[in-house]
Specification:
The structure holds two protein chains of two kinds.
Chain A lengths: L2 E3 L1 H8 L3 H8 L3 H8 L8 H11 L3 H4 E3 L9
Chain B lengths: L21 H32 L10 E4 L6 E4 L2 H33 L6 H27 L8 H32 L3
Antiparallel strand pairs in B: 1-2
Classes of the chains: A mainly alpha, B mainly alpha.
Chain lengths: ~70, ~190
C-alpha cells in the first residue's frame, strides 16, 4: 500500500493506548484497528481532524506516502 | 428570488417491510409462487418417474394425435417416449422458474436483513439471467423440434430476451453496489 499509517509510533510517544484514542476520537476500536493495520480504504477528514487534535500532531505525522502499488488494489 | 415550494403530497415512502409495504406484498407473492411451483414441479417429476415404470394403460392407451397441418397432417400414436418428453420438458420449464424463485427469495432475505448489496446477490442475479436464457432458448428449441407446437414468433422471443438483459444489467449494478458498500465499510 502506498499510504502507510504510523499510529503505533505516535501512540507510544504519547503513551496512549488504542482504546483510549478510540474513545477520545469517537470511533470504534474495530474501526481504529482497521486504520492501524492498513486495511482502511479511506479516512474521513473529521476522523483525521479528531486524531490530530487528540494526538497533538499533523496529518503528515500519521500518514506517510511510500512508493508502491496503489491503495485498494487487492 | 426564492422558488415556490410544493405542498407536501401526504405520501410516505414505502418502508422495506411492514404491513402494507411494497416489500411485504412482494414477499407474500414470492412465497406463494414458490410453493405453487414447488408443488407443480414435484407432481411433474413424480409423473415422469411413474411414466418410466408404469405400463401405458388407461385413457392414454391407444390414443393418437394429429401432427402437422393441411396435406402434411398425419395421425401419430401417443407413445411412452412422447409422454416422457412432454413431462420432462414441462418439468424442466417449471424447474427453471423454481430455481429463479429460489434465488429471488434468497435475494429478498438479504434485503430484509438490510444488506442486499453483496457479492452473493451478484452471483444470484447472474444465475437468474442464465436460467432465463436457458428456459427461453429451451422453449424455442422444443417449439422447433415438435411439429405439433407452432413455432415461436420473433416477438415472443424478444420479451424474455429483454428480461435477460435487464437482469444482467441489474447484476452489474449490484456488483458496483457491493464495491461501494465494502468501500464504505472500510472508511474510518
Amino acid at each position: 500500500m502506498a499510504i502507510r499509517i504510523q499510529l503505533d509510533r505516535i501512540l507510544v510517544e504519547r503513551r496512549m493506548s488504542l482504546t483510549e484514542l478510540a474513545d477520545r476520537v469517537g470511533v470504534t476500536l474495530a474501526n481504529l484497528s482497521i486504520l492501524k493495520t492498513g486495511k482502511a480504504r479511506a479516512v474521513r477528514f473529521s476522523t483525521l481532524d479528531a486524531m490530530c487534535r487528540e494526538l497533538d500532531c499533523q496529518p503528515g505525522d500519521i500518514l506517510v506516502w511510500e512508493p508502491g502499488p496503489q491503495a485498494g488494489e487487492d | 428570488m426564492a422558488l415556490p415550494t410544493l405542498p407536501p403530497l401526504g405520501l410516505r415512502a414505502p418502508r422495506t417491510l411492514g404491513p402494507g409495504s411494497v416489500s411485504s406484498l412482494l414477499k407474500i407473492a414470492l412465497d406463494v409462487a414458490y410453493l405453487i411451483l414447488l408443488l407443480i414441479t414435484g407432481v411433474l417429476v413424480l409423473a415422469f418417474v411413474a411414466a418410466i415404470f408404469l405400463p401405458l394403460t388407461g385413457p392414454l392407451a391407444g390414443q393418437t394425435y394429429i401432427e402437422g397441418s393441411g396435406d402434411a397432417a398425419r395421425e401419430v400414436p401417443v407413445t411412452r417416449t412422447l409422454i416422457l418428453f412432454g413431462l420432462g420438458a414441462t418439468a424442466a420449464y417449471f424447474g427453471g422458474f423454481l430455481m429463479i424463485l429460489r434465488d429471488l427469495r434468497a435475494i429478498f432475505r438479504t434485503l430484509i436483513q438490510g444488506d442486499p448489496f453483496q457479492p452473493g446477490n451478484v452471483r444470484r442475479l447472474r444465475q437468474i439471467g442464465l436460467t432465463l436464457t436457458v428456459v427461453t432458448l429451451g422453449v424455442a428449441t422444443v417449439q422447433m423440434l415438435v411439429p405439433a407446437i407452432p413455432n415461436a414468433r420473433l416477438s415472443e422471443l424478444l420479451t424474455p430476451l429483454f428480461a435477460v438483459m435487464v437482469v444482467f444489467v441489474l447484476a452489474e449494478v449490484f456488483k458496483e453496489g457491493a464495491r461501494l458498500r465494502s468501500d464504505a465499510e472500510l472508511t474510518v
